[in-house]
Amino acid sequence: MIRIDKLTKSFGKFRALDGIDLILEKGQAVSLLGPNGSGKTTLIKSILGLVIPEKGSITINGQLIRNHPSYRANIGYMPQIGRYPDNMTIEQVIHMIKDIRKEQTEYDEELYVSFGLDKIKHKKMRTLSGGTRQKVSACIAFLFSPDIYILDEPTAGLDPVANEVLKDKIATECARGKLVLITSHVLSDLDGLTSHIIYLQDGQLMFHESIGQLQERTGETKLNKIIANILKNADRKQICIS
Ligand SMILES: Nc1ncnc2c1ncn2[C@@H]1O[C@H](COP(=O)(O)OP(=O)(O)OP(=O)(O)O)[C@@H](O)[C@H]1O
């Protein structure tokens, strides 16, 4: 579904992504992990066409994205921090987004209702808490039922109930054959949800494996233990080599 070949992006002399190769398939819930500054957002922005790589290519459903900008209509994006006009109400923001795609007449408003946004739709965006803004961002990402969801720290600021609502929604969409790419620093939020892990370090791909493979390799079941185990062993190898 998404194929990334030798993707390289520098900001000045600094290389943020260094020859990344990845294949992501439909029905997968892929967690994109790595320390601060490892290149996760740059990779996401490259897929969204918001960052132009200097080398390499990204293909979605067999089409090179640089030649087919319309591919973006098939991606639901939830940014780390959603920015909306302060004086608009929740309802007005949702209407504005729907208006952008007049040709679409059916919407997925499950999250709008499950999050209870329908009950506070007359509230202005500037009056909303951080978590409620996150809920609006999630609703917008899922509104047009795209085939691909890219969710950047989606659970940050959500209360435990909303967190579960969103996780259920992600699992449902994966079961329907959608591809979900998620970044999060809260690994416990990804437990039970993720089918594959991509781990970036200093702009390079450290590993890309299924949860099953990682559990077998480390003997651990929880994501934070799996990652800790791999990083500990990677450190040991480095110490042995140097
Ligand atoms: N527009 C830019 N100009 C210069 N450097 C940038 C730019 N965008 C990103 N970088 C640098 O590229 C590196 C990767 O940044 P990126 O935002 O992709 O990391 P990240 O893995 O998403 O980090 P975090 O976990 O903190 O969100 C960082 O060192 C960052 O400072």
From TrEMBL:
Matching InterPro entries: AAA+_ATPase, ABC_transporter-like_ATP-bd, ABC_Transporter_VariousFunc, P-loop_NTPase
Superkingdom of the organism of origin: Bacteria
Signal peptide: none
Residue span(s) of domain ABC transporter: 2-227
Gene3D superfamilies: P-loop containing nucleotide triphosphate hydrolases (3.40.50.300)
Keyword terms of this UniProt record: ATP-binding, Nucleotide-binding, Transport
PROSITE patterns: ABC_TRANSPORTER_2
A single GO molecular function term of this UniProt record: ATP binding
Name of this protein: ABC transporter ATP-binding protein
Organism whose genome encodes this protein: Chitinophaga pollutisoli
Source species taxonomy: Bacteria, Pseudomonadati, Bacteroidota, Chitinophagia, Chitinophagales
